[in-house]
Amino acid sequence: MTRKVLVMGEWKEGSLRNVSFEAISAGKTIAEGGEVVGLLLGETVKPLAESLIHFGADRVVIVEDEQLAKYTTDAFSQALMAVIEKENPDAIVMGHTALGKDLSPKIAAKLDTGLISDVTSIEIEGGNVVFTRPIYSGKAFEKKIFTDEKIFVTIRPNNIPSLPKDETRTGDITSLSPEIKDLRTVVKEVVRKTSDGVDLSEAKVIVAGGRGVKSEEGFQVLQQLADVLGGAVGASRGACDAGYCDYSLQIGQTGKVVTPDLYIACGISGAIQHLAGMSNSKVIVAINKDPEANIFKVADYGIVGDLFEVVPLLTEEFKKL
Ligand code: FAD
């Protein structure tokens, strides 16, 4: 069965986030040969539209409005609902990001449809589109199908590979101008807490530190390794609670859920609440002084040793590559 799939792209500071391309790839699978329509909402998004086509969208709809310059549930849901009404897609896909987590339940409620969130893989089995998602903080996976006609999913970043970029692909870019009105909230200002650098939730490599890092200065040692690997620094709640780093870096049940290609856990014991945020990483390396540390149970490679000796050695070796 072919489907028309609407895929919402996401941008940050003038660039499309990788999850947009992964969502297009997810949309292609769901479409089963049908049409994949990219969607961009923002104040000026036209320059980004072609990229969605290069990564697999058949055409792109854009809604440009100054009220969409900064995300608000109100404005984005009005714009998205207008596009859904116009396009009447069989399926809707967006990233399981802060934006997607906020927007998708509201849209699902408005459409009176189901929502499968945090999808990590999609297969076509026996005529059904089967969605896999983690449950119980990543300790198990469930497979779900829609019994409703409309499919609506959010996909976890870094899990569904995007399609190769093809700059020869072409497609229509059409503009829609729905009326966005009676907003109950507007964003006056965004005060950024974290510095520039690789976005933790999209990083391919994460060097994470725990209480074993012992100080804010200790985190500089991890930052140097992350810089050499083009990755981001993350942390356990133990390290955040101790004031070694900002809570925006916290990974785990009450922090960010990440699935990088490489996760290097330094001085982290591996409490269940931490594992909930990183155990689905593709390769896990643990560095810990305690050979009995729980983190070694989920690690692909374990180094029993002092992180302040091991991490600088790794940094030096990776610099040579
Ligand atoms: P510790 O458990 O103290 O471990 C430090 C480790 O460092 C030890 O294994 C030690 O052997 C090692 N070490 C010490 N020095 C060195 C050295 N020089 N070299 C190498 N290794 C060294 N935690 C999270 O991380 N994320 C969450 O989202 C989260 N949510 C929670 C939610 C709830 C409701 C609760 C109750 C707890 C939550 N926690 C969370 C806390 C969690 O239970 C642990 O307390 C926390 O993860 C421990 O952090 P840690 O591993 O850094 O510290």
UniProtKB/TrEMBL annotation:
In what residue span(s) does the Electron transfer flavoprotein alpha/beta-subunit N-terminal domain sit?
5-189
InterPro entries cross-referenced by the UniProt entry: DHS-like_NAD/FAD-binding_dom, ETF_a/b_N, ETF_a/FixB, ETF_alpha_N, ETF_asu_C, ETF_asu_C_CS, Rossmann-like_a/b/a_fold
Q: Which cofactors does this protein require?
A: FAD
- List the Gene Ontology MF annotations in alphabetical order: electron transfer activity; flavin adenine dinucleotide binding
For this protein, the record's CDD domains field holds: ETF_alpha
Q: What's the name of the protein? A: Electron transfer flavoprotein subunit alpha/FixB family protein
User: Which SUPFAM superfamilies does this chain map to?
Assistant: Adenine nucleotide alpha hydrolases-like, DHS-like NAD/FAD-binding domain
Keyword Oxidoreductase on entry: no
One Pfam match? ETF_alpha
- CC cofactor note: Binds 1 FAD per dimer.
What's any GO biological process attached to this entry?
A: fatty acid beta-oxidation using acyl-CoA dehydrogenase
Alphabetized UniProt keyword annotations: Electron transport, FAD, Flavoprotein, Transport
Q: Coiled-coil segments, which residues?
A: none
Family per UniProt?
Belongs to the ETF alpha-subunit/FixB family.
Residues given in the record as FAD binding sites = 211, 236-237, 250-254, 267-274, 288
Highest taxon in the source lineage: Bacteria
List the PANTHER family. ELECTRON TRANSFER FLAVOPROTEIN ALPHA (PTHR43153), ELECTRON TRANSFER FLAVOPROTEIN SUBUNIT ALPHA, MITOCHONDRIAL (PTHR43153:SF1)
**SMART domains, per database record:** ETF
